[in-house]
Every structure is written in structure tokens, then in C-alpha cells.
Amino acid sequence: MFEKADAMLNLSNLKVDIEGSRILNGISLSVAAGELVCLVGRNGAGKTTTFRTIMGYRRPRSGDIAFEGVNLAKMPTWQIAQSGIGFSPEESEVYSDLTVAENIELSTWTRPTGGAAAARIEEAYAVFPKLRQYLARGGAQLSGGERKMVSIARALTLDPKLLLLDEPFEGLSPAIIPSIAEGVASIRAMGKGVLIAESNVHHIPDYADRIYVLERGEVMFSGTLSEAYRHRDVMRVIAGKIEVAS
Fold this sequence. Notes:
Elements: E1 9-18, E2 21-31, E3 36-40, H1 47-54, E4 62-67, E5 70-71, H2 77-82, E6 85-88, H3 100-110, H4 117-127, H5 144-156, E7 162-166, H6 177-189, E8 193-198, E9 210-215, E10 218-223, H7 225-229, H8 232-241
Parallel strand pairs: 3-8, 3-9, 6-7, 7-8
Antiparallel strand pairs: 1-2, 1-4, 4-5, 9-10
């Protein structure tokens, strides 16, 4: 399962129930510093539940969520964020009554770190330079791709060690996807760990270190993207979910 002793994040046999139904059935995965790891699966496979459980929005029935050796399973969400995990949700959740600049600045006081606020903000704009054009624009005036950039940039100004990006390419214009992919590559190059949830295998950046394919709450495959393309059962699942929005 590519478990790594030096990983910053390790999920071990994680099980999660929602309203009496088993959603995650013993998944294990790991992400190390400077890695891009992708969790791939169709709608309902458990990707978003995995992210929400890591962030403390849901509590596991059993299993461990270890971040830098500390078990997060019973921590409140604010404390998990304070520990150094940034989260960009699928819906982006940009504040419509705040400007782009104000949205991005929020995380600098949410999690004070050794990094100066101005430097953290500048780093976010270096990842997504297009946002400099929209600093005074309100969140409600942004396109889907622009909201996604703001959401990721806001998570980045938290100064996290690990970023969770839920469906960063979903529903975006093909013209904007390369900008998001380049931004993710820049974040990875900073030495941060990145875990992406993705429904469409064709959106997975070719520089991904490995993928985990999730099916009905279980990891059915872990390995490289090229290995996945050679795996018949994995491709059957992937082919099925390409047609389904996550």
C-alpha cells in the first residue's frame, strides 16, 4: 500500500460510518513532504468523506489518522488546521462579500506561524499570478476557475505543511486547468505534501507521485499512474467514473 515510515500523513485502516452506512471501509494511505498523491474514485466512493474525516468534520468509527506522528482522530477542526493542514473544498467556499485580497489574507491570522503574513500572501500570488489582476474584485464576481484559485491560495496562506485539494479541476474550463495544475506543481516544489481527490483520471497531473483508487470505500489499487493504466480492473473503474461527476 506504499505506506511510508517518513510520511507526514498516514491513514491506517480508517473506517467511517454515516447514518448507519459504512462509507470508508478500512482505507490506508500516506503522503510525505514534497509528494503529490491523488485519491481517485467515482461519485460516492468516499473521497470527500476521507478529506472531511482528516479535517475533523467527521469522526472515524475506527482506525488512525496520524499527522507527523500525532493522532488527529479526536481533534477539533480548528486544531487540525493549526497543526498545519490546509483544505480547499470542492465547492471552493470563497466568501462572496469579501474581495480576493481579503479572502486570501484570512488564513494568515487564522494560523500564526514564523512566516510573515506579507511573505505568505506574496507566495500565494506567485503560485497564481493571475489573481493579482483581481485583488479588489468581490468573491461573487469570480468565475469557477478564479474561485478555485482563490480557495487554494487561501489554504496556502495558512502556511501549511500539507494541502488537501478536493476536486481542484472539477467543472473547470479546459483553458484554466493548466493554470491550476501549474500552481499545484509549484506548491509541491515548495516541499509541501499535496493530497488531491479526483474523479477524472485525465485530470491527474503527470507528475503525481502515486495514486490510490477508491471503490466503495476501499482502496482497490495503489501505485503510479502509468501502472494504473496497465491494470485492467482499475481501468474498468476509472472508465466508469469518467462519466460521473464527483
